[in-house]
Structures are given as structure tokens and as C-alpha cells.
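Format notes (please read before filing issues)

Several people have asked whether sequences and C-alpha cells are stored in separate files. They are not. Every record keeps both together, in the order shown below: the sequence lines, then the C-alpha cell lines. Line labels are part of the format and must not be stripped during preprocessing.
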Amino acid sequence: KNQWAYEEPSESMLFILLLFQLASILPLSLFCPSECVCVSDGLASVSADIFQGLVNLTELNLSKNQIAKLDANVFQGMTSLNDLNLSGNLLRKLPQTLFHNLVQLKSLILYSNQLETLENEIPPQLFWHLPSLLTLTLSNNQLQYLPAEKQLMGHMPRLQELYLYNTNLNTVPWNLFANMTGLRALNFHYNEKLSSLPRDLFCCQTNLQKLSLKYNNLQHLHPDQFSQLVSLKILLLNDNVLQSLSSRIFHNLPNLAKLELSHNHLSYLPGDVFEGADSLQSVTLGHNRWDCVCNIMDFVEWIKKNQRVKKNMFHFESFPRIKSIFLIKAFIVFCCIHIFLWGFKIS
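Then the structure lines:
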């Protein structure tokens, strides 16, 4: 038989050719199942109609691409979408109506993009139309400014987790979290320029159970900073530059179980600073700048009376042998006597 003779194509071959032809002219939506992860490594752009007709799609992952811009209507028909991951792209601006039809969205991840200021790149009220959202991640962007006049977040009572870390923020508006009344975990850490917090920043988070403010640059906290966090169980304040704390700062935290204050610039704590924190189980205070002065005695008495609390207490670099509560107290008494005699001698 002549190897170059013409042969009729088989039915399977015709079907494959037909699929290739259709794929070149029809939108992606007709080939995607109702539940899928649509991810394409290296994708640089997304056309406005690429997801047209995907009304049953529940999960869309466009992470780790090179998308720099999104059309305002690209997600318009995706009314069943639950999870949207846009992390690891090159997004600098987001259209104001980008998420307006995603009424079923539960998780929105915008981690690691190139968003810089929320005044220009992220318009006010961007997240106002996401009533079902449970998790929002804005971390690892170079955010510098958040507008106070028009709230970024609308009424989001179901939001449970917010991630806003590794930014260039040095402060935030007092009403940033005001509409997040159902928030359970707030990860607001690793913001090296964040030096202060508005007094009423946590005014409405009565359901918050975990608050992480570690590795910021906080120098001062208002005495009533946490007064509304009656459900709080975990408070992470370690690795800041706090120099002092008000005696009432933890007084309205009856459920607080874990507190981290290590690696700050604390030299003294009031003796009644933990009054009312009856659920406290763990406190870390190491690597601070404790002063050998008599007014620290009240706090040492609290340590003595609360042996149930697991403590990583004082870290005396110059006095490594001082470890037990008794030796700490004896050491401070010795210092107080020394200070008293030295003062008497001078006078």
C-alpha cells in the first residue's frame, strides 16, 4: 500500500479538530465546569468577557500571574463566586465597581500586588457590596494612606478575618474597622512605619478574639485602646517600641488568656495593670528595659500572687542568674535600699 495515499479522517480525529477550532473562537466560559480553579501561570491580561456565562463558578484563582489591570465588568456575571484569589499579580489600581456583583463572595485575597495608596489605586467604598465576605487579605502591598472621609468598608457584619500587614502605613483612620462588627481575628502586624493608633480604632469589635499588633513601631497606646474588646483572648504586642502602659489598659479584657509584650522598651508596669484579666494564662515580658526602681515592687507582688500564669518574665542580660520570683524580688529590694541610701547620702 502506498504510504502517501489519501485516507479519510476518522471520527475521533474530526472531533479533536472540531474542539481546537471551537476553542479558538469561543470564550473560556463554555469549557470551564461549574466548580473549577482557573489559573494560568504568566497570564498578563484578562479580557472583559473571558468569564462570561460562568454564573455557577464558585472558585477562581488568578494568583501568581502578571496581571496589571482588570476591567470593571470582568466579574460582573459571577454571582455564585465564593472564593477569589488575585494575589501575586501586578495590580496597581482597582475599578470601583470591580466586586459589586459578587454578593456570595466569602474570601477575597489581594495579597502581594502593587497597590500603594487607597486614595488613588483603591477607590472609597470598593468593598461596600460584599455582604457575605468572611475573609479579606490586603497584606504585602505598599499601602501608604487610607481615606477617613469615605469608609473603605461598608456594612460587613459577617467578616471574620482581616489581614493587613507588611504595608507602609504609619497610621489609619479611626473608622477603618467600624463596620466589621463580627470580626474574630485581626492581623495588623509587620507594619514597620505604624507608630500610633487612633483611640477608637477598635470601638466596634466586641466579638474580636485575636488581635495581632506585633512587629509594628508602636510607641504609645491610649489607656482605653482595648476597652471594647470584651471577647479578646489573644493580644500580641511584642516587638514594638512601647515604653510604658496605662494601669487600666487591660482592665476590660475578662477573657484575655494570652498576652505578649516581649521585645519592647518597657521599664516599668503598674502593679494593677492586669486587674480584671482573670482568664490570663500566659504573659511574655522578656527583653525589655526594666528599671531597678522601687515602684516596680507592686508588679512583682502581682507576679508572686499569680503563679498560675505561665510567664516568660524579666530578661536581665546583666544578671543572668536572677531567674526565680524570689530572686527577682530580692534583687529589686536590694536596688531600692541602695537607691534610698545613695539619695540620703547626697542630701
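For reference, the curators noted about this record: Residues 325-346 form the longest helix (22 residues). The helical segments are 11-25, 297-305, 325-346.
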